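ok so heres the complex, two chains, lmk if somethin looks off
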Amino acid sequence: MGTDVRRRPLFAMQLGFTLLVCAFMFVPIVLSIMAGFTSNYIRGISSGLTLRWIVEVWALYRDAIGLSLLIALACLAITLVVGVPTAYVLAKANHWSTRLIEELLVTPLAIPGLAIALGLIITYGALREFRTHWTFILVGHVLYTLPFMVRSVLAVLSSIDLRTLEEGAASLGASYWQRFFTIGLPNARSGIVAGALMVVTLSVGEFNITWMLHTPLNKTVPVGLADSYASMRLEIGSAYTTIFFLMIVPLLIAIQRLGKPRRRSVRATPAVSTR
Amino acid sequence: MVRRQEAPHLLLSIVPVVTIFAAFFLLPFARLLVASLEGPLGSGAYAAVLTNPRYFSSLVSTILLALVVTFVTLIISGIAGVFLDRNHFAGRSMVIAALTLPLAFPGVVVGFMVIMLGGRQGAIGEISKMISGHNLVFAYSMAGLFVGYVYFSIPRVILTVMAAAEKLDRNLEEAARSLGASSWRVVADVIIPGLMPAILSAGAFCFATAMGAFGTAFTLATDINVLPMTIYTEFTQRANIASAAAMSVVLGLITWVVLAIARTAAGGTVAAAG
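and the predicted structre for the whole thing:
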């Protein structure tokens, strides 16, 4: 085929370019994992492999890992309990007030975390107990992750004929909460799972807000990472990054897997808001 | 009507979210506005963003950085995204996985990735030492920040481009080709206009992150002159709360407006095309 031959160099060039980008994204990940297990990174792998850095990180930052998991799970619980019923309402109601809420909910994503955190400190910083408690960080995480849960569930609920199902159930005498639990929740399942993965992933990795809200006794993993990059040797920073990858990469892979068949419905979210 | 009886339940379902939002977002943002006006300069704190040379230079360099990051990321991700959508080859899914894996890496980790590439013991420095004997170190500066933001933005932009490229009408391209259009003309006249909504929204995302992100700069060097670092320094080291608040409000407004414009523009084009 004439055209194919003509376009083959173009294909090779594009493939080469894409692989180069791929290397740019992937090489530093591999290097940092390697460095985390190398005795002396400057001298290279020949200096020997070791688990010493991982052990040291565990001793230094165990609390941060625990706190990150605690905050992520608490954040997930809150976004589930308050976010899913909200998405259910937004999917059912077609009122200016619900559209306004839908719009407002995503504004924290459009404003840098630093600004949100400053606002929180100025408003609640004087409340000593709250300021130094881990729930102060949790507040920031909930603000930041809630829109993902709501939109993910809303996208799924908007793609089905919720109204007809609801009317059928209501005519058979099902109450509001009966319908929420027997129609809303089961139909929203895939959206809830996708939203939950997103919430946990974002919470575990959140830095912009957390750095401002944390206290010396309340450090999350990304705060500890910043700390180790600034004051520890490269091998320790690498080992810590490797542990962070272990926490977050399974979540990211799960999101990718889940996203494949459903990607279109999740991406259709902006269309939902223009109803 | 069912809706009438439902109203109390609907309200009850939505009250927690509204409360959380009002108490922890609306109120703090209002307090931030007030704090920005309560300094010694009063509303002059906003004028200072433009008149104070240090603030102004960091505002300008942040906007320039964000523009360049957006431009470069769109080109890189546009080429790779369209290519990956159009061509199926062995290992394609691995390539996509590797490209999109860093999707939710926090800024600090992205900063560390830049150090692995361009830091004092970085891979690129090692390579350049072998070639020219000179250790190329770029991580701890604006150049490192640029590389970090491009790294951070590529996964999301590639996903957006791929999703949009999938929906393009291939017949238009074939038609253009059969009418004698060169590959470049097809790209410029068919593919890029078709991808415009995706380009706008992905570009706005790049711009907003590069404007407001904080972790990457924090990891690379605390003296990089970008707005988030300036805000951080004003607030924590100089206790200049009014200026920090005013700059945060300005920063928040810029990112919010850019995202809002892009969303309206992209939405409008989508509606016009459909």
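quick notes: The longest helix of chain B spans residues 2-37. thats all i got rn
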